[in-house]
Structure formats: structure tokens, C-alpha cells
Please model this.
Amino acid sequence: MNTPWTHTTVLLNEAVEALLSGSTAATGTYVDATFGRGGHARAILARLAPEGRLIAFDKDAEAVAEAARISDARFSIRHQGFRSLGELPDASVAGVLMDLGVSSPQIDNPVRGFSFRFDGPLDMRMDTTRGESVAEWLATAELQQIAEVIRDYGEERFAVQIAKAIVARRQERGAISTTTELAELVAGTVKTREQGQNPATRTFQAFRIFINAELEELQQALEASLSVLQPGGRLAVISFHSLEDRIVKQFIAKHSKEVYDRRAPFAAPKVMKLNALERIKPSEAEVRGNPRSRSAILRVAERTEAQ
Ligand SMILES: C[S@@+](CC[C@H](N)C(=O)[O-])C[C@H]1O[C@@H](n2cnc3c(N)ncnc32)[C@H](O)[C@@H]1O
Model:
């Protein structure tokens, strides 16, 4: 299916270069864990040798439909969360790319319910074929859980007040079912605003991360990448907010350090599984041309020989 909404790929050349490490006719198997609209995928395919392979993942049925338009025997797409990349054979992959978060077609399509800028059903699922929408969850969730989600995933100071307002409104007038209802409720509850930011920004981010289990899935996919990457294989991850970036940064740091066992101080240290290589931000020109890229951070690491 072709939608009128397009996605401008962030850090296109930088990410593909980091993944393929200079190779112009790469022969290995690569994973694009977040196909989106295929910006990175098409650039990777352009640099693969005939025997190279690209396995893509996306949770979103519209992304998968777009991928089905690529007619290339080296390419395949899986309609799955990227934690499933752990199902690939051990040490079979030469590079894993993750371009986290939502695509522009998801944000800009009101029906998906990701944005407070458009009125639509309060859904926010990347995979609309399974799971609960935000509206369904909010219809029964406990006040404490709502507050924790807003605080932990939105880093919102007014989490408790917003959660109380959501529950009060549910009791008085029934559950919230649209993006506009949620945005207006938050705006009426949060008294101080960060400059240039909609008061509902943090709450929307929090609900999106929660309903898609984004951080849990990221952690699981990173762990899985250690098994599927072959020695010398690259891990390249683009994140868009501090919660994601912290997980990626700490994961790479943890596996790029020699670990000593405190109970056996004289034993040889465990060898590191990753070499941390680079941290790349978009150029000023890219941010000017695509403001959505401004918070992007690409981190790159290389799998070592260690088991
Ligand atoms: C930023 S977009 C990727 C854009 C893509 N690199 C491009 O150039 O078109 C992120 C995509 O990843 C998908 N996604 C996010 N989290 C996912 C997950 N845990 N598993 C699979 N797909 C996921 C989203 O549905 C979205 O299509």
C-alpha cells in the first residue's frame, strides 16, 4: 500500500557506512531491524553483492506492505518485533541496524493516534494487528500504573496530577478515546510549560513507549544481537530520546569493558564482546533540512571474537 505520507531517513549515509564498514559489495547477511519506509534498506541493498542478504523487520503492517514492493531476491521482510532477530542462527549476521522509534507516516496519519497535533483515535500501536490501544489500556488502568508510566517513560514532573485527571475524567464522563481529548486534558492539568513544547509531549511519548513495550524490546534485541553477530559484525543504533540512548550507551559500555569477578579477583577478566566505535550526530545541514533528526544519536560497535 502506498500512503501519501513519506519518511525522510535520518543519518542515511552515516548509518549505512557504519554498518557496512567501507564495503562496496558486501557479501554477508545484514539485518535492518526497523524497515519503516525502507530508506536505509534500499541504500544497503545498493551496496550488497549478489550473494549478500538483507533481512528486515517491522511491527507495522503498512511498513511491511511497502517492503513487499521491493522485488529483490536478496531481500526479505518479517512482520515481527525486532526482538525476534534472536531467532536467526548464531554468528550468522554481519551487521544489525536499528533506527528506533516511529516513522513520519505513523506520526502524520491521524488514524494511528500518535500525535497531539491531529485529532484521531487514541491508539499508538505500531502493530495494529495485536495488543491493546492506549485508549483501551487507559479505560481500566490503575491510577498508580498510569502515573508510573507517565513519570518513568515521559520523565514528566506532573505525572501524578495528569494520572489523577485521567482517572477523574473516566469516572465523570467515561474513558478518553481520542488524541485531542488527552491533549486537552493534559493542557488543563499541567500549569507550567517547557518553551516551544506542547504540554502533552511527555505524556504522549510515555504512552507510546509503554503501549509498544519499546524499551523492553530494545534491551532484548540488543542482547540478541550479541548472539547473531559474527566476529567483526557491526551494531549500529539510532536513538531519538535519552531513555533509548541511555540503554544503548550502557549496553555497549557494559560489553566493551573487561569484567573482573569480585569473588575471584585473581582470575583472568572476562573478555569484552563489543568494541565501542563511534557516536555520530546529524550534521547541521541535515537538521536544517529535517528537524525531526535533531535529537538523533547513532552509536556504533563491533562484535569481537569473545564468546
Ligand atoms: C524511524 S522508523 C525507521 C525508518 C527507516 N530506517 C527508513 O529509512 O525508512 C522506525 C520503524 O521501526 C518500526 N519499529 C519500531 N520499533 C520496532 C520494534 N520493536 N520491532 C519492529 N519494528 C519496530 C516502526 O514501526 C517504524 O516503522
Notes: The mean pLDDT is 94. The chain has two domains: 12-104+214-303, 128-211. Residues 159-173 form the longest helix (15 residues). The pocket of S-adenosylmethionine is lined by residues 7, 9, 34, 36-40, 57-60, 63, 81-82, 99, 101-103, 126, 217 (CB under 6 Å).
